[in-house]
Amino acid sequence: MFHPKRFCIMGTKILFLMCLIVFGHSGAHAASFTIIANKSVVESALTRAELQGIYLGEKVKWGNRKHIKISVLEDDRTLKEFLQVVLGKTPSQFDQHWVRMVTTGKASMPPAFPDAQQLIDYVAKTPNAIGFVPSGQPGDAVKTIAIK
Amino acid sequence: MKKALTAMMLLAFAGPAHAVDLAGVEIHGFASQGYIKTSPDNNFPVSNSGEGSFNFNDFAVNFSKEVNPDLRVGLQLLAMDRGSYGKDKITLDWAFGDYRLTDWLGFRAGKIKIPLGLYNESRDNDAARTFIFLPQNEYYDYERDSVNAITGASVYGSIPAGSAGTVNYQFQIGTTPIPLDGASARNYSAYISTVDAPLTTTDVNSSTAFIHHLEWRTPVGVRATFSGLHTSFDGTATGIYTDPATSATTPVTAKWKFDSWHRYILGVEYLWNDLTLATEYQRDDYTVSADYQNPALENFTSKQASDGWYVSAAYRFTDWFELGGYYTAIYADRNHRDGSTFEELGVGAPWQTWQKEKVLTLRFDPVRNLVLKLEGHLIDGTWNMSEYTDASKRNWYLVATKATVFF
Would you indicate the residue range of the signal peptide (chain B) (predicted)? Predict the structure, then answer.
């Protein structure tokens, strides 16, 4: 038998759950990482789809047709959040993706840095490089890239 | 090969780098050693697995160099052992030049990995997946040498599809090199051999092959692929015919052909946090013919229509532990899944025309660059068992373990 009250309670629960999921998802965008790039890069903002393409080795050129040089920060917390927010992948899924890329000759392994300052130094001195670091750490040697 | 790999592994582990870099040449590789045990009378895919075998390994090393930002060259050497084939002979797995003009247009020429389904390109490296054995319809071990790579050219690229994600494409044209001493050639011999005339392939010629592969990667973790392979190949096999009545023997030379071979694979993979779900469906259509050039044997032409599918799930519980499993079903004749084809022809039992497997895998990543796996299969049917004998059983098991080091 149809019970309107139960139906409303169930509906409210589902709505609440969906709100939690949406809130959790949108909350993730208030990320604690910053995308940085070498000052030679002309772009100042990228969509999440573009960042996905870059970090999966699909998008390899900047708008000025220069070859993108990606870099990875190995810091566990920042890496996990960046991969989850931008790629929807875990570190092991990301590692396996790049093992496949390298084993099939499609790309070189992106350089990985254990320390944010080392990554900033690499991005600062490497034309067309991009990376990510914890928020508040970029400094003046690199430019920051907004996520559209 | 093994000594060279060991030296490179030591170099790779000497520092935090992910690869060895010598004068701009990036070097990666893997070494994978396993142990396999199957039911005593069912040897698959290692020829002596019924007794338990260590003839189960894969070694590779690859070199690549960025000539300029748009042009890369590289090659990979691979050796593997599966008992009666492979035998750790070093082969050229892939070797190509890659010129990327734009995001949506690139060119490759040389020996290029064939993009069939979700995982064919990366199937060599055990570290790149959860399972030891990928589902055997789509990733048949005895076919690995013939669908591994194409010698020719390809065009490829990535096309943004806005909020729908990205479409990646590859088109390839060339020939598929089929080694005479490989498992594929052995399989072709089995197709045209009879009880009284066991034959060995002595020559294989591949016609031009055409491969197409589309991959749609959505922003919500779904990756869908559609691939096709279209080719023909023919060859010669020789052997001795023994008359069952008189025991008199005569030589046999057979001309055989696998004509108009069309393979299609549809695949979907979904990633959600630590969960990976995947499913693929594959169907093959081709015509096999044999001209025995011996009056005692009857020539034949036979249309084949096989298919198979699987569903898999894998979940990573911690950084070092992953659990996975899949179910797969493979049918030699998709129009008679009950196996009545063999029964009516009087060539075998119905269960010899299918292979259904339940698989469970434990994967451990105890330290960086090291993967340990343990896997069990419960199997009904023997269609994929290339080294079938009259003693082979319908219901059987396969247990395998493998350790892989990669850099």
Answer: 1-19
